[in-house]
Predict the 3D structure of the following.
Amino acid sequence: MGLSEGPGVRPTPCPCNGFAARALERARRGAILAPVTRVVGLTGGIGTGKTTVARLLAGLGAVVIDADAIVHELQAPGTPLVAAIAQAFGREMLRPDGALDRERLGRLVFADAAARKRLNDLVHPAVGQEMLRRLDAAKRAGAPLVVLDIPLLLEGRAARGGEPARARTASDLASEVIVVYAREEQQLERQLARDASSPDHARERIRAQLPIEEKRRLADHVIDNSGSLDETERQVRELYAKLTR
Ligand code: ATP
């Protein structure tokens, strides 16, 4: 029932020769006929297997929208976002070729919470907008399942918990969340096996995020990747079937 309908309320006459009414009718029919796209967030902890699970879901037919890849694209040399970051943090955050000096910026925001917030306030809305654009395109194309791959989805929500609504960010686009879980010691082992970081540095990266046990509690769906890759693949197939039923 529309706002202008209902008992005792006369439908408002359309002032535009029925054009708006026809458009509304088309939209209603479209809404009925269009397949529903389910939108889920995908997250985990460092090294728990989020990338592995995203790849499996994509192989099954999900459209995966990768927040990190979008951040990289939006921060290519010469983009408006890079200009805004240079203005906020100084031109010394740029390399001579105009590319963002990620390492330098990373060191700055790792050590300074206020700077981290300023950077997030520049980056997150831009990423959210681009994810929304891709999400709309996937919905228009009739995708049954869109997976928003957002490493810090739950940290973002926790950080904004008490704040009034601000610009929409990527984490607001998903109403349910998949967490890829592995035990903390496996996070450490897998990081060390994957890259040449020291155990201390790997531990520091793990501690900079919400603990994985906490993320597991906040999840709507858990993929337990503490076992073999075959077991993970089986869980992913089951979850995909459940989400697209
Ligand atoms: P990050 O967020 O740090 O990029 P991630 O959560 O995306 O990590 P992956 O890159 O998928 O995690 O996996 C981390 C490492 O662990 C990779 O080298 C991957 O091959 C390995 N790995 C993933 N799942 C398993 C598993 N079930 N058993 C053994 N190794 C695994």
User: Anything to note?
Assistant: Residues 44, 46-52, 151, 190, 194, 225, 228-229, 232 surround adenosine-5'-triphosphate (CB under 6 Å). The CA atoms of residues 95 and 101 lie 6 Å apart.
